[in-house]
Every structure is written in C-alpha cells, then in structure tokens.
Amino acid sequence: MHALLFSSQPYDQDSFSHAPGAAQLALHYQSARLSEDTAALAAGYEVVCAFINDDLSAAVLQRLKAGGTRLIALRSAGYNHVDLAAAKRLGLAVVRVPAYSPHAVAEHAVALILALNRRLHRAYNRTREGDFSLHGLTGFDLHGKTVGVVGTGQIGLAFARIMAGFGCQLLAYDPFPNPQVQALGARYLDLPDLLREAQIISLHCPLTTQTKHLINPQSLASLQPGAMLINTGRGALVDTPALIDALKSGQLGYLGLDVYEEEAQIFFEDRSDLPLQDDVLARLLTFPNVIVTAHQAFLTREALAAIAATTLDNIARWAAGNPQNLVEG
Ligand code: NAI
C-alpha cells in the first residue's frame, strides 16, 4: 500500500523511516502543503497523511477521493481543519493521533513563560552584542503566582503539574473538571472569573465553535493589568488583532504564542528572504514582551516517534479492517 505524506519535513522522514511497521508500507514524502492546487499529487495513493496546516476542506477531499484516496491519516491530535461531514459523504475514513506527548506541549508552554518572565530572548541578544547590562530584564518569582489553565485534558494536566511544582496557585476552567488537576489543589472556576483572577493564563482547549475567539477584546479588558497570556492550543482561540491593542495599552504584559490564526500560509517555511505580508503578525513581532514560535510545541524526539508509530499503526489497522482512532463528524 502506498501512502503520501504532505507537509513532510526532514524530521518526519527520519521518524517515519525508523518507526515500527515502516517496512510494510511504501511511504512517499512530499514537502508541499496539501491544498486544492497540490491535491492532484496524491493521485493513486490510497492513504494521504496530513498535518495541521494541510487543507482538508470539502473541495480538497473531493479531489483526493477522485484520485483514489480512501484514508486520511492525520499526524495530529487536532482535527479542526478537516471537513468531517464531507469526508463522511465521500466515504473517506479519517484517523488521528489522539495523544503523543502531552509533556512536549506543556513544557513548551512553560518555556515561553520562563523566557518571557526572565526576558531570556533579550538577554541572549544582549550578551552576544557585548552588552552585559541588566536594565529592563527584571522578572518576577513564579512561586506564589496564580496560574489559570483553560482546558485541563492531557496537556493541561501536564502543564498544571509543572506549575504546581513551581509553587503556583492553580485555577482551572473546563466543562469537564479533571480530578487529577483538582488533586493538585486547582480551583475550578467559570472562565470570566479565571480570567479576572489569574496572573498567567495558558490555553489548552481544542478549537471549536464554542472556543473560537475565547480571548477577545472583552475578555482582555477583564484581565489583571500586565497579565501573561500563553497560547499553545490553536491560533483562533484568540482574536489576534485585539492582542495588539491590549499590548499597546499595557493591559497585556506578556504574550507567548506557538500558534497563530493565519499560520497556515506562513509557518513551517523559511521566509527570511521575503517581506512578511501579514501585518498583524509583523506588528506582534515588534513588541519586546512577545515571543512567537512557529507551532513547535509538539517538536520533541519523543513526540515525533510516537506520532510516526501511532500513524503507521492506524494505517495498518485500517487496512486490516479493524480501524482505531477514527474521527467521525
Ligand atoms: P484533550 O482532549 O486531552 O483535552 C482538551 C480539554 O479541553 C478537555 O478536557 C476538554 O473537556 C476541554 N475543553 C473542551 N471544550 C472546552 C471549552 N469550551 N473550554 C475549556 N476547555 C474545554 O486534548 P490535549 O491533548 O490536552 O490537547 C489540547 C489542545 O492542544 C488540542 O486540541 C490542540 O489544539 C492543541 N495542541 C497543540 C499542539 C502544538 O504543537 N502547539 C500539539 C498538540 C495539541
């Protein structure tokens, strides 16, 4: 059986070629992002393996189906980018990797907190330029601070455990409270109360119609002045232009983003020779108290190995008529 991996990077080739079961499949790697323009590349491939910024809209699925594709194997946990109703209508099965390493994402969220708080990005540049001054680098003790965790599933739990280890007070919001998070001493509150009380807020919920623009002008106005916001969930959880106003006024004191609403056309590519066309992202990058990473929270050796192993297992089980990790609309 032949499988085509769209949006594949050298690290994907490495992890997939070393994963158990790789020899049983003919794996083909394509660096192009899946879109209406590139869907034709999948003609003749029974399995298309896609990542988070691939386009899996109805029009693209229609083209894949016409080319003979029968299975969409997502290399991600999130599936908000798939038109599941269209997949069902076309008889395309969709499988995903529900969990690979919650620690990878949680630890990246913490890395953003530490870097923003202690201004590591500025200190790094300064010392390399021979500037050993400390002005503007004052941070705060994390110990004793109030941290709000929005979405307390696997990643939110891993994040809460780390922050509890720092001696933070934990607040949580999730329609389904997690007893393991409660056992850490976290207090579950309604979202507006959490946003009002927390000094650091980290988003770990999925993107759905309910969570789109969960952080918006009104919720930003309710934050503690100078609060820190971390988003490693999905870009559209926050209304990005509203962040710029909150940063300009100082209402938002720190911002760490690993995901961006309009990232699909930008992230995962070296664009350093090109003018940045996205004015919102360009403005965000001018703030000294903002760190943007290009959707790299998942990127650890352990997570890549787990993504490859589960994806190949998903494909093998589907081929054997015993599918697992199916996503249904
Ligand atoms: P999970 O399914 O274990 O947990 C999600 C939690 O969010 C659940 O407890 C659920 O009840 C909660 N939730 C659902 N609706 C909510 C709402 N309206 N408000 C607050 N909470 C809500 O998922 P997991 O593995 O913890 O992943 C969370 C998200 O992290 C994913 O959906 C994905 O978007 C993102 N992610 C980002 C990665 C990155 O590289 N930046 C990598 C992997 C996941």
UniProtKB/TrEMBL annotation:
All residue ranges annotated as the D-isomer specific 2-hydroxyacid dehydrogenase NAD-binding domain in the record: 110-297
Domain D-isomer specific 2-hydroxyacid dehydrogenase catalytic: 4-327
SUPFAM superfamilies named in the record: Formate/glycerate dehydrogenase catalytic domain-like, NAD(P)-binding Rossmann-fold domains
Molecular function GO terms recorded: D-lactate dehydrogenase (NAD+) activity; NAD binding
Keyword Oxidoreductase: yes
CDD domains: LDH_like_2 (cd12183)
Protein name, as recorded: 2-hydroxyacid dehydrogenase
Keywords of the record: NAD, Oxidoreductase
Positions in coiled-coil regions: none
Lineage of origin: Bacteria, Pseudomonadati, Pseudomonadota, Gammaproteobacteria, Pseudomonadales
Protein family: Belongs to the D-isomer specific 2-hydroxyacid dehydrogenase family.
Source taxon at top rank: Bacteria
One protein family per Pfam: 2-Hacid_dh
Annotated transmembrane regions: none
Gene3D superfamilies in alphabetical order: NAD(P)-binding Rossmann-like Domain (3.40.50.720)
The UniProt record lists the keyword Oxidoreductase: yes
